[in-house]
Amino acid sequence: MATRIEIRTTSTPAPVGATLMKTGQTTSYRTGDDGDIEAGRATSFTVLASNNPFGNTNRFTDELGGQTYTNRIRIDWSTYDGTNVLGYYQLASPLLQTWAQAIDWGLALSISPFTSGWRLPNVNELMNLMNWSLSANVNYSPFSIATLSHWTSTTNNNDTLSALIVLSNSTNSILNYSKLLTRNTFLATRTFTVTGTTLT
What we know:
With 200 residues, this protein is mainly β. It has a single domain (34-199), classed as Roll (Mannose-Binding Protein A, Chain A). The protein has three helices and eight strands. The chain has helices at residues 34-37, 99-108, 123-127; strands spanning 60-61, 73-76, 84-89, 149-155, 162-167, 174-178, 188-195, 198-199. The strands form two sheets. Strands 1-2-3-7-8 form a five-stranded antiparallel sheet, with no helix packed on it. Strands 4-5-6 form a three-stranded antiparallel sheet. A hairpin with a 2-residue loop joins β7 (188-195) and β8 (198-199). It is globular and about 70 Å long.
């Protein structure tokens, strides 16, 4: 009788995600709250636990790895997965548009050499920028947005004539606003491919 030998191979599963970022809240109001535990990835809201591809621990840099933001592009290295990273573009002066106008503006945005791929961020991409230790939670460098509401590309499932906005002021809210009647400001986002220290 032949002996059957079964060979099993195991492989390490590919990573499917990362720990969420810290919220930025450092004040504790009781044991076990967010300010006490500070759960999440990174050393702090704006300092990474390890170097980005440019060799520094800055969560936000410009596309060249510095912090001058000449082209108004902000790269968020907390979203870097080893290949891709999210970047944001902020207008020098806020522009108020309807939801469709904001989407069209994002899709048409062209900043050399990044002439395509821009879009309006979804609600999760915008919420990732909120620093919950601040009353105006996007009022920090490099964004410094004090009291504006921002469109997201996310539609309200219960009211498809409304889209979600994120308020970056003291109310720190996600609200539904009419796509047709309301005008809000916005950021654009884009996925960049990273090769060494070159973004495309």
